[in-house]
C-alpha cells in the first residue's frame, strides 16, 4: 500500500472558517429547550464568577484595611454564598451540556448510518469501509466532546472575558486601556496558529482513518495473511501507516503547543505589567488595595478565559474537520433512489415475458472504460428458469447486480411485466427477489436472526421449516445453543457448506417471486448437494428463476440456457441444442464431463 501524507491530498480541503460547525444546528434544533436552559445556567455561572471579584474587593477594603471583624465576616459569607451558587449553576450547566452532546452525537451517528445504508454500491467501491467507519465513530466521538464540553467552555470563557473587561474599565480606566492594547497581541497568535491547526486537524483525522482501514482489511483477511506467512510484512506496512498518522499528529500537537505557550507567555507578561503599574498607583494613593485586588482578579479571569479559548480553539478546529467529513457523507446523493417510483403489485397482469433485458449496455462506475455488458437481450417467461453460463468475467454476476438495481444500465431497459424497474419503488422491487450467493453473507448474530433476515416477522416454526427444507436443521441442532447459537463475525463458526445452507434457508423463508441462484450448491458435499438440489427444485416450481452456473451438471434441466462471453450473449437454448450449436458451450461441457460424457448427457437428456 503506498504511503502518502494526508495533508497533501487534494481530496482533503480544509474548511476556511468555523462556519461549517453551523451545519450541526439541524441536529441541535430539536433540543432548543435544553440548549436555552444550559445557556441560562452558563450566563448565571459567568455572572457569579465575576461577582466574586467584588467580594474580594470588599474582603480587602472593608475587612482587612478597615480592620472590621463584622465586615470581614460579611465579605466571607458573600464569597461563600457566591461560590455555592456558582457550584450549583456549574452542575446544571455541565449536566445539560453533556446530555446535549451525547444526544446530538447519537442522532448524528444514526443519521449518517441511515444515509449510508441507502447509498448505491458504487460509492463503496471508491471509498474504503475503514475510512467510513472512522467518520462514523472517531469523528462523532470528537464532536461529542466538543458539544458536551469544549463548546460550553468556549462560551463561558467568552462571557467571562467580556464581563471581566467591562468590570476592568469600571475599576480602573488607565489599566483597562493597557489591557485593551494587549488583547489584540494575545489574540493574534490564536488566529495565526489556529489556521495551521485547522489544516493539520483534518489531515490527522484522515490519517487515523487510513490506519483503521488498513487494520480492518488485514484482520478481515487474517487467514490469507497467515497462510502466505505475511505477518511480518503486514506489521511493517501497518507500522508505516501508524508513523504517517503519528507524524501528522505530531505536527498538529506542535502547533497547538506553540499556540498555548505563546498565549501563556503573553498573558502572564501582561498581568505582571499590570500589577507593577497598579501597585505603583496603590502606593501613590490613586487606588485602594481592594480595587487593585479586584482588578488583578478580573485580569486573571480574562487571562484564564483567553487561555481556555486558545486551547479550545484547537479543539474547535478539529471539530470543524470532523464536521466537514461527516457532512460530506450526509451530502452524498445516492445514484439509485430507494423510495421513489410505484410499488410492485402482485395483482398486475403481466403480458409477455416476466423479465426482459433489452439492449443493455453497462460499465461499472469504478472502471468505466471496460464494458461489463454489451447489447444484452434476454427474456425470462414467468415461472420459468434461465441459466447463465460462461467463463469468468462474462457478465453473469452483473446481470444479478442490475436486476436488483444496485446499478442502472448505461443504455437499454430491464422490465418486469413490461414495467421498467426504474419506474418501480426500489425497496418494493427488491422485496420480490431472493438471492443465494456463492459466498453467502452472514451476520454476527444467532441463527434465528440470520435465517429470519429475509422475513423479520416469521415465526419460529416457519424458520425451522425453512431450515429443514434447506437441510440445515441437523447442522443447527449440533451447534452449542442450537438456533440461539451466535455464528461469529461473518459466520466464521460455520463451514462454507453450512453457511450456504443457512443462506438457502433464508431464501426459502422469504418465498420470493423471483429467485436468483449464484451456484448455490457449490460449497456442499455430494450428499448435501443432492438433498439441497431437491429443496431448490421444489422452491423453483412455478417461480421465475435465474441461475448462474459454473457446473453445467446443475442446470441440465433449465428451461433456457444463455451462454455469455465478454459481456455478450453468444448463444441461447437448451442443453442438447447448445452442445450442437455453441462451440463455447461445447468446450465448457468437454472440460467438465470426462471422455464422451457430454454425448452421454445428450442421450440422457433425450430420454428425459
Strands, count: 10
CATH level-two architecture of one domain? Up-down Bundle
Q: Shape from CA axes?
A: elongated
Strand order of the largest sheet: 6-7-8-3-9-10
- CATH homologous superfamily (4th level) name of one domain: ABC transporter type 1, transmembrane domain
Biggest sheet, in brief?
A: 6 strands, mixed
Global structural class: alpha/beta
Low-pLDDT runs of 5+ residues are: 1-17, 595-608
CATH T-level fold name of one domain: ABC transporter transmembrane region fold
Using the coordinates above, name the CATH class of one domain.
Mainly Alpha
Features:
10 strands, four-stranded antiparallel sheet, single chain, alpha/beta, ABC transporter transmembrane region fold, 608 residues, elongated, six-stranded mixed sheet, disordered C terminus, disordered N terminus
Amino acid at each position: 500500500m503506498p504511503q502518502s501524507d494526508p495533508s497533501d491530498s487534494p481530496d482533503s480541503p480544509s474548511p476556511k472558517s468555523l462556519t461549517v460547525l453551523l451545519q450541526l444546528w439541524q441536529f441541535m434544533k430539536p433540543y432548543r429547550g435544553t440548549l436555552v436552559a444550559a445557556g441560562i445556567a452558563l450566563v448565571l455561572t459567568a455572572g457569579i464568577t465575576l461577582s466574586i471579584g467584588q467580594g474580594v474587593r470588599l474582603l480587602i477594603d472593608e475587612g482587612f484595611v478597615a480592620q472590621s471583624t463584622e465586615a470581614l465576616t460579611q465579605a466571607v459569607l458573600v464569597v461563600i454564598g457566591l461560590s455555592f451558587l456558582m457550584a450549583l449553576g456549574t452542575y446544571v450547566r455541565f449536566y445539560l451540556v453533556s446530555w446535549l452532546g451525547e444526544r446530538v452525537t447519537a442522532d448524528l451517528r444514526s443519521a449518517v448510518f441511515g444515509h449510508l445504508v441507502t447509498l448505491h454500491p458504487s460509492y463503496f467501491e471508491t471509498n474504503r469501509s475503514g475510512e467510513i467507519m472512522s467518520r462514523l465513530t472517531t469523528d462523532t466521538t470528537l464532536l461529542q466532546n466538543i458539544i458536551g464540553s469544549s463548546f460550553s467552555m468556549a462560551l463561558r470563557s467568552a462571557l467571562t472575558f467580556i464581563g471581566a473587561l467591562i468590570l476592568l474599565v469600571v475599576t480602573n480606566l488607565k489599566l483597562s486601556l493597557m489591557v485593551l492594547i494587549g488583547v489584540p497581541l494575545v489574540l493574534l497568535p490564536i488566529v495565526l496558529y489556529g489556521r495551521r491547526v485547522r489544516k493539520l486537524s483534518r489531515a490527522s483525522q484522515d490519517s487515523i482513518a487510513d490506519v483503521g482501514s488498513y487494520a480492518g482489511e488485514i484482520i478481515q483477511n487474517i487467514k490469507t495473511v497467515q497462510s502466505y506467512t505475511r505477518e511480518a510484512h503486514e506489521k511493517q506496512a501497518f507500522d508505516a501507516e501508524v508513523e504517517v498518522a503519528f507524524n501528522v499528529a505530531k505536527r498538529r500537537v506542535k502547533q497547538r503547543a506553540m499556540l498555548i505557550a505563546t498565549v501563556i507567555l503573553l498573558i502572564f507578561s501582561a498581568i505582571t505589567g499590570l500589577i507593577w503599574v497598579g501597585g505603583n498607583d496603590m502606593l501613590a494613593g490613586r487606588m485602594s488595595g481592594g480595587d487593585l485586588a479586584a482588578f488583578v482578579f478580573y485580569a486573571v479571569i480574562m487571562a484564564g478565559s483567553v487561555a481556555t479559548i486558545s486551547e479550545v480553539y484547537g479543539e474547535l478546529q478539529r471539530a470543524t474537520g470532523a464536521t466537514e467529513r461527516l457532512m460530506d457523507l450526509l451530502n452524498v446523493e445516492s445514484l439509485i433512489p430507494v423510495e421513489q417510483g410505484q410499488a410492485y403489485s402482485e395483482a398486475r397482469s403481466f403480458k409477455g415475458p416476466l423479465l426482459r433485458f433489452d439492449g443493455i449496455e453497462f460499465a461499472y462506475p469504478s472502471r468505466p472504460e471496460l464494458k461489463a455488458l454489451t447489447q444484452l437481450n434476454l427474456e425470462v417467461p414467468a415461472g420459468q428458469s434461465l441459466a447463465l453460463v460462461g467463463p469468468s468475467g462474462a457478465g453473469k454476476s452483473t446481470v444479478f447486480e442490475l436486476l436488483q438495481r444496485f446499478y442502472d444500465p448505461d443504455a437499454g431497459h430491464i422490465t418486469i411485466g413490461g414495467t421498467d424497474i426504474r419506474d418501480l419503488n426500489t425497496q418494493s422491487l427488491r422485496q420480490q427477489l431472493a438471492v443465494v450467493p456463492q459466498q453467502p453473507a452472514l451476520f454476527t448474530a444467532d441463527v434465528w436472526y440470520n435465517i429470519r433476515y429475509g422475513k423479520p416477522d416469521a415465526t419460529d416454526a416457519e424458520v425451522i421449516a425453512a431450515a429443514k427444507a434447506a437441510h440445515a436443521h441437523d447442522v443447527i441442532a449440533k451447534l452449542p445453543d442450537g438456533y440461539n447459537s451466535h455464528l461469529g463475525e461473518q459466520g466464521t463458526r460455520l463451514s462454507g457448506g453450512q453457511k450456504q445452507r443457512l443462506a438457502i434457508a433464508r431464501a426459502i423463508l422469504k418465498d420470493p417471486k423471483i429467485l436468483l441462484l449464484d451456484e448455490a450448491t457449490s460449497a456442499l458435499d455430494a450428499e448435501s448437494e443432492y438433498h439441497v438440489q431437491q429443496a431448490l427444485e421444489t422452491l423453483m416450481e412455478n417461480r421465475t428463476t435465474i441461475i448462474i452456473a459454473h457446473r453445467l451438471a446443475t442446470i441440465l434441466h433449465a428451461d433456457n440456457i444463455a451462454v455469455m462471453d465478454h459481456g455478450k450473449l453468444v448463444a441461447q437454448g437448451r442443453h442438447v441444442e447448445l452442445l450442437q450449436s455453441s462451440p463455447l458451450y461445447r468446450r465448457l461441457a468437454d472440460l467438465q464431463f470426462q471422455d464422451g460424457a457430454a454425448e452421454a448427457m445428450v442421450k440422457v437428456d433425450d430420454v428425459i
